[in-house]
């Protein structure tokens, strides 16, 4: 065998496992058992019943299966992997131990605590011989044949294993062969002669009476034949009486001395025979048969001469009485055996009844215990439910109180918000505004737009920028109120600060930002406004992204700027950007869709009148009339392209796409911003194009996608970042 599985079998083939305590071998009866409990159960029972107080050891030879079942078929161990063979051998070993434990359980139920001894070999007969030799086994009980071959007249061994063991076992081993619970043969002839009536089986073996009758037929005939000499008759009678005495002795019967001599005449004397019959278990009652009618024949009487006719008549009478006594003994033995069987059956039934009663008592106790535990758990569960209901009621009360308190706080917050909105900015008189601008001196004008003119001034010792509504302005009171409403409630480092207003003239007073607008630096308005470096441009893009995220995250409603462009982005002395001009900003409301389970519904504003600068406006707005926060994302994308390329807003997207198709990203970067890092410049271009996507749903989220890209460029920018 070359496979791993066969190597494992060969490695363990000569290995024996012993679980027998250190007892003397002569005090132990070893019972060879099969791997199927039903095949050797009766042999174990017989051995225990006839053990005579000796120890019992279950002996087994484990033969590994040459073929292993796998996937509906059987395969040689050489065809399988080592792991598969080891797993199957492990299961075989477990099954063997379960079988041996079953035999031990049978012994335990019969009041005997047995041990076990086993070996693994390819041949059962060789395994038994190996164990006999290795452990010097002197008493062995094994099967003579399968139970199906048993019959009343069975006297020979039919099992090849039994024949092999009988021939190969050492002479010192006393072997008793059993079939279906009956003794069939004893291998040790000396031991067979001493075993007595208590060892032979009830059925299937030849009775003592039959043995005597069969052995004495020839002698009787010879006695009755008158054709031999007187001396030969005397010698024949002498030997026959010796044979009877020997037969009775082997049956545990005691016959008084027979005295015979060729020189003396024969005369009968009273013969006393006592026969003690002991059943197979060696522990039942003793039956004494007394044949007082026979006179003992002394051996010296045989020396007296007697006529042959007298001798024949006396011997016939003795034989008749002996045969009658043996028949009665056999009948008594059979009666004792039947009584023993009935008693054992009654004892077994009693033990089974007691066991069932004990099992029922145990089950009742367990059931009562379980019932008590269930009742206790049910009681605890009811208490917990009661406590939980009380807690729920208490929580509901607290919840109601909390809701009432929340409503009260919301009212207070609403009132405080109204009060705060009035306190976040000052109310200036028109006279103060005139004085601050030196009566609107033209040299102090720093800007002009659709809303009106912007003047620089000093108001209450603070340098400010004053935006005055023009009489011909396209914007009116609604834009003024919208800007006041938004800027009076919001504060952010990158949002312009509203200092005060004049309600009468619709004048707005802001903080003064000396570096003008982002548009001035992108187009290099004059020599005093140099171009911005690429680092400053990345920082400004990050600041604007932060401001837009702040507006879009406002609670309870998002705020959309609606007019994001370079002219509305102002720069302070440190070139920190400030988002201004909230006149057309919108407070967005959520879409009312009860059929949708989406809690993150889109916030939007529907209008039929477009406001803003065309080059920066969301193209999807013209198709749907809806303004969302993604409209600001589109404007931010256009603005980001302007920061990177330095080109004008009109047509910038198509121009950049054309440049990308040419494969020269460096040619798209604004050279006035300095030496752009190519990788970062390319990332900004692709990010801006995503923001400018025609499909609103394809545009990235400012708070996640856009901010993550800009945040990754933080290390390249030396200047200070203003974060959210």
UniProtKB/TrEMBL annotation:
Q: Which InterPro entries match?
A: Kinase-like_dom_sf (IPR011009), Prot_kinase_dom (IPR000719), Protein_kinase_ATP_BS (IPR017441), Ser/Thr_kinase_AS (IPR008271), U-box_ubiquitin_ligases (IPR051348)
What are the boundaries of the region Disordered? 214-251
The alphabetized UniProt keywords are: ATP-binding, Coiled coil, Kinase, Nucleotide-binding, Serine/threonine-protein kinase, Transferase, Ubl conjugation pathway
Name of the protein: RING-type E3 ubiquitin transferase
SUPFAM superfamilies on file: Adenine nucleotide alpha hydrolases-like (SSF52402), Protein kinase-like (PK-like) (SSF56112)
Q: What is the lineage of its organism?
A: Eukaryota, Viridiplantae, Streptophyta, Embryophyta, Tracheophyta
Q: Which reaction does it catalyse?
A: S-ubiquitinyl-[E2 ubiquitin-conjugating enzyme]-L-cysteine + [acceptor protein]-L-lysine = [E2 ubiquitin-conjugating enzyme]-L-cysteine + N(6)-ubiquitinyl-[acceptor protein]-L-lysine
Tell me its EC number(s), please. 2.3.2.27
SMART domains per record: S_TKc
What Pfam families does this protein's entry cite? Pkinase
Residue stretches making up the Protein kinase domain: 440-723
Q: Where does ATP bind?
A: 467
Q: Which GO terms describe its molecular function?
A: ATP binding; protein serine/threonine kinase activity; ubiquitin protein ligase activity
- Coiled-coil intervals in this record? 319-412
Q: What class of enzyme is it?
A: transferase
Q: Which domain of life is it from?
A: Eukaryota
């Amino acid at each position: 065998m070359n496979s791993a599985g066969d190597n494992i079998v060969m490695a363990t083939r000569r290995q024996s496992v012993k679980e027998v305590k250190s007892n003397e071998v002569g005090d132990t009866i070893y019972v060879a058992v099969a791997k199927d409990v039903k095949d050797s159960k009766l042999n174990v029972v017989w051995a225990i019943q006839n053990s005579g107080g000796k120890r019992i050891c279950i002996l087994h030879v484990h033969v590994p299966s040459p073929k292993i079942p796998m996937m509906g078929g059987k395969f040689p161990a050489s065809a399988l992997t080592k792991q598969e063979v080891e797993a199957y051998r492990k299961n075989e070993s477990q099954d063997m131990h379960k079988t041996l434990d079953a035999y031990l359980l049978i012994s335990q139920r019969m009041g005997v605590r047995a041990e076990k001894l086993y070996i693994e070999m390819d041949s059962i007969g060789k395994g038994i011989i190996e164990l006999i030799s290795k452990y010097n086994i002197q008493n062995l009980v094994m099967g003579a044949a399968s139970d199906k071959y048993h019959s009343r007249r069975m006297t020979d061994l039919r099992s090849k294993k039994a024949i092999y063991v009988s021939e190969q076992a050492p002479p010192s081993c006393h072997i008793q062969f059993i079939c279906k619970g009956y003794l069939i043969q004893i291998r040790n002839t000396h031991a067979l002669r001493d075993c007595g009536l208590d060892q032979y089986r009830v059925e299937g073996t030849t009775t003592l009476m039959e043995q005597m009758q069969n052995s004495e037929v020839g002698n009787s005939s010879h006695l009755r034949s008158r054709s031999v000499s007187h001396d030969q008759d005397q010698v024949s009678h002498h030997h026959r009486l010796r044979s009877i005495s020997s037969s009775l002795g082997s049956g545990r019967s005691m016959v008084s001395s027979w005295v015979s001599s060729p020189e003396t005449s024969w005369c009968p004397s009273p013969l006393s025979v006592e026969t003690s019959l002991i059943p197979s278990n060696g522990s039942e009652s003793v039956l004494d048969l007394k044949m007082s009618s026979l006179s003992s024949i002394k051996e010296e009487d045989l020396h007296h001469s007697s006529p042959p006719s007298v001798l024949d008549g006396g011997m016939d009478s003795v034989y008749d009485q002996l045969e009658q006594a043996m028949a009665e003994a056999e009948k008594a033995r059979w009666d004792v055996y039947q009584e023993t069987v009935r008693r054992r059956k009654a004892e077994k039934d009693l033990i089974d009844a007691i066991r069932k009663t004990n099992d029922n008592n145990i089950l009742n106790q367990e059931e009562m215990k379980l019932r008590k535990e269930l009742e206790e758990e049910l009681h605890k569960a009811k208490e917990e439910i009661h406590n939980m209901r009380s807690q729920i009621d208490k929580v509901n009360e607290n919840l109601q109180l909390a809701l009432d308190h929340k409503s009260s706080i919301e009212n207070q917050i609403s009132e405080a918000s109204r009060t705060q909105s009035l306190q976040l900015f000052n109310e200036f008189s028109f006279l103060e505004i005139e004085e601050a601008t030196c009566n609107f001196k033209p040299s102090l004008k720093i800007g002009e737009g659709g809303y009106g003119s912007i003047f620089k001034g000093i108001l209450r010792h603070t340098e400010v920028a004053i935006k005055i509504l023009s009489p011909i302005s396209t914007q009116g009171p609604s834009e003024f109120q919208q800007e006041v409403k938004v800027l009076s409630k919001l504060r952010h480092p990158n949002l312009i600060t509203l200092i005060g207003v004049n309600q009468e003239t619709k004048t707005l007073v802001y903080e003064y930002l000396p570096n003008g607008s982002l548009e001035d630096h992108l187009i290099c308005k004059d020599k005093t406004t140099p171009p911005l470096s690429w680092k400053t441009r990345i920082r400004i893009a990050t600041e604007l992204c932060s401001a837009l995220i702040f507006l879009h995250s406002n609670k309870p409603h998002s705020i959309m700027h609606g007019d994001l462009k370079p002219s509305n982005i102002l720069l302070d002395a440190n070139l920190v950007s400030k988002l201004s001009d909230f006149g057309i900003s919108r407070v967005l409301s959520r879409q009312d869709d009860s059929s949708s389970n989406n809690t993150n519904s889109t916030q939007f504003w529907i209008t039929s009148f477009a406001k803003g600068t065309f080059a920066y406006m969301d193209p999807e707005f013209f198709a749907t009339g809806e303004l969302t926060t993604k409209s600001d994302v589109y404007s931010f994308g256009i603005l980001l392209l302007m920061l990177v390329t330095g080109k004008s807003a009109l047509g910038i997207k198509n121009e950049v796409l054309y440049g990308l198709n040419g494969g020269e990203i460096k040619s798209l970067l604004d050279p006035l911003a300095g030496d752009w890092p190519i990788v970062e410049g390319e990332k900004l271009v692709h990010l801006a194009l995503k923001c400018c996507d025609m499909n609103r749903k394809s545009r990235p989220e400012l708070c996640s996608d856009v901010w993550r890209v800009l945040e990754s460029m933080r290390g390249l920018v030396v200047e200070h970042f203003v974060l959210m």
